[in-house]
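Query structure, 455 tokens:
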């Protein structure tokens, strides 16, 4: 199944604009207000932050930076991603070997040591596969190589989410409608309230618990994310069932392959060749590595999108220009400081600002262009949000906790809606949760939807 058209060559995420003269820039810059330099936590944007002349001039500079990098791509970039791929493959082989032989070790200490080492290497391999390899290859960053499998149409990563579903919800919806409430479904992932623009409900009191569940099972949330989005997106389409059936079948087929590999096939092979204890060490190591990868991925993604100064947009401007799009990507993203290996393990999403303005640029170039992007942001009085990992993560947790409680205005709005619902309750149909029968009533609604569309 393929939901997106093939991408043969790397290209900018947005079209080109004609440069403006200095006279035009000076004249138009006084016509509209610029973004306020006064920062408040959890800012919301209701109109284009920059005057048109400035946003157009910003576009010219960013496009020139983009073209300079893309024109320089060559053998060094190809070798880099091939080395990353080889590292993923060989580290996984070593890790799985260590996990298997851990069960055959004679002493308890050696068993624990081999298991910890194997689990650590497997976690490293899965993180690298997910972030620097899978995420970036599936963005089309290396399609220009015309490699037989390191391209956005053929590559498949080591998580339960099928590539086409992720490309639809992430490459298209998230990167096109970044941080627009109601259009970008990554704003809260339908689970967590992260802005005042989202209505408050009593379930939001459990924001912190929901976040913990999301973090530990992040690959599963990503897998079912597109199902929930598509049910609404294609609600009026006569082909709704056919589309959802295709997506659901692809999803459960991928889940079966991943679960079968990590939790059935590999432990079974270890049991048949080395015994029951090797099967247990393999199974437990796989569970631990997948959990570590989920937690790491969640932390990196949330630190890139939900810090204090990550701006949320209330709507999509019908007249949004290329420059406005660039500004929205900059304001809605946050970077994380770190060393070279830290950046690699984040898939260079520690440079989330650079990634959002240039999603199809090979991510290994983000660090080198970051100073120039930062200088351009300062030139146009745009915040360039960056900080240490601990700082950004603390801000994320603070934001999630803050929006678990309603403002007085939101509380009054909730009470009004609740009172109206009570009045009309007798005219409402039975909720889906009440109609579910058997074990299915314990499944999340989105999982029940996915199962229903299989047939």
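Result returned for the query:
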């Amino acid at each position: 199944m393929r939901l997106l058209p093939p991408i043969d060559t790397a290209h900018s995420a947005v079209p080109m604009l004609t440069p403006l003269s200095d006279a035009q820039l000076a004249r138009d810059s006084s016509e509209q207000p610029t973004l306020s330099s006064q920062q408040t936590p959890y800012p919301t944007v209701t109109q284009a932050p920059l005057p048109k002349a400035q946003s157009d001039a910003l576009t010219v500079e960013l496009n020139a930076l983009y073209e300079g990098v893309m024109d320089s791509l060559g053998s060094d970039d190809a070798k880099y991603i091939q080395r990353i791929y080889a590292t993923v493959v060989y580290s996984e082989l070593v890790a799985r070997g260590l996990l298997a032989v851990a069960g055959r070790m004679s002493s308890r200490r050696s068993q624990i040591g081999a298991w910890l080492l194997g689990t650590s290497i497997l976690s490293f391999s899965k993180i690298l596969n997910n972030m620097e390899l899978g995420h970036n290859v599936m963005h089309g960053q290396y399609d220009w190589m015309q490699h037989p499998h390191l391209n956005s149409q053929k590559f498949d990563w080591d998580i339960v989410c099928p590539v086409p579903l992720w490309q639809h919800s992430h490459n298209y919806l998230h990167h096109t409608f970044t941080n627009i409430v109601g259009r970008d479904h990554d704003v809260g992932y339908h689970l967590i309230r992260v802005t005042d623009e989202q209505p408050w409900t009593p379930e939001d009191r459990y924001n912190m618990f929901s976040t913990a569940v999301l973090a530990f099972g992040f690959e599963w949330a990503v897998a079912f994310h597109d199902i929930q989005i598509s049910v609404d997106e294609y609600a009026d389409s006569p082909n709704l069932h056919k589309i959802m059936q295709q997506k659901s079948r692809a999803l459960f087929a991928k889940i079966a392959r991943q679960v079968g590999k990590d939790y059935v096939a590999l432990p079974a092979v270890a049991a048949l060749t080395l015994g029951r204890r090797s099967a247990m060490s393999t199974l437990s190591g796989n569970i631990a590595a997948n959990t570590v990868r989920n937690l790491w991925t969640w932390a990196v993604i949330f630190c890139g999108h939900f810090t204090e100064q990550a701006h949320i947009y209330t709507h999509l401007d019908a007249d949004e220009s290329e420059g406005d799009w660039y500004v929205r990507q900059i304001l809605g993203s946050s970077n994380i400081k770190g060393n070279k290996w830290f950046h690699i393990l984040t898939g260079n999403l520690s440079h989330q600002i650079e990634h959002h303005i240039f999603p199809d640029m090979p991510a290994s170039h983000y660090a080198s262009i970051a100073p120039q992007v930062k200088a351009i942001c300062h030139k146009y009085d745009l915040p360039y949000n960056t900080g240490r990992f601990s700082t950004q993560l603390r801000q994320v947790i603070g934001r999630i906790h803050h929006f678990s409680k309603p403002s007085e205005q939101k509380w009054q709005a909730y009470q009004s809606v609740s009172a109206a619902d009570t009045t009309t309750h007798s005219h409402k149909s039975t909720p889906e949760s009440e109609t579910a029968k058997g074990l299915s009533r314990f499944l999340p609604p989105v999982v029940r939807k996915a199962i229903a569309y299989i047939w």
